[in-house]
Amino acid sequence: MLKFDVGDNRFNFRSAAVIMHQDHVLLHKAVQDNFWALPGGRVEFFEFSSDTLAREVEEELGMTARVIRPLWYVENFFQYQQTRFHEIATLYLTELADPDVIPFNVDFPGVEEDVDLIFRWFKLSELDSIELAPDFLKTRLRSLPEGVEFLTVNEIES
């Protein structure tokens, strides 16, 4: 995976899936976390970021996913636990082969290598009421861009 640490800082190259179904978006979180995020994972060496999503969805949910198109390229600075992240993220509109397998209004378990995950569909209209990272997704998921947008996000306190 494409990441490296320097002291308490980490560089991370991540790919994330925007999976929409019937005015809902699929989000996930680690059981111990208090925030939700888009499903995805770290890109491997010589792996296209779009291919990362098919692999990650298969690993975490046991489902087949198809990447439709890129939405956002994001430079994201944030802190998670005691580590400050400099993350490059590609976010793609993605669809599941059978999205109805994950029921609405119910938590659905998933597995990352050493972390238990929870997946859940959220109505787009309720995103303002949850902790979602990065925060720009609360508004941007309601109106997806026609082309790729480049965004910078700095959530690290100066």
N-to-C CA distance: 29 Å
- Output the CATH topology: Nucleoside Triphosphate Pyrophosphohydrolase
Proportion in β-strands:
over 45%
**What fraction, in percent, of the residue positions are helical?**
10-25%
Q: What is the average per-residue confidence, as pLDDT, rounded to a whole number?
A: 94
The SSE string, one letter per element, is: EEEEHEEEEHE
Strands, total number: 9
CATH superfamily: Nucleoside Triphosphate Pyrophosphohydrolase
| Count of separate structural domains | 1
Principal-axis shape: globular
Task: Specify the structural class.
Answer: mainly beta
- Uncertain stretches of 5 or more adjacent residues: none
Largest pleated sheet: 9 strands, mixed
- Say what oligomer this is: single chain
Gyration radius (Cα, Å) is 15 Å
Annotate the secondary structure layout.
Elements: E1 3-6, E2 9-21, E3 24-30, E4 40-42, H1 49-61, E5 65-80, E6 83-96, E7 108-112, E8 115-123, H2 137-140, E9 149-154
Can you walk through the features of this model?
With 158 residues, this protein is mainly β. The longest helix is centred in the middle third of the chain and has 13 residues, at 49-61. It has helices spanning 49-61, 137-140; strands at residues 3-6, 9-21, 24-30, 40-42, 65-80, 83-96, 108-112, 115-123, 149-154. It has one domain (3-154): Nucleoside Triphosphate Pyrophosphohydrolase (Alpha-Beta Complex). Strands 1, 2, 3, 4, 5, 6, 7, 8 and 9 form a nine-stranded mixed β-sheet that branches. The model has no long low-confidence stretch (mean pLDDT 94). The radius of gyration is 15 Å and the shape is globular. Keywords: Hydrolase.
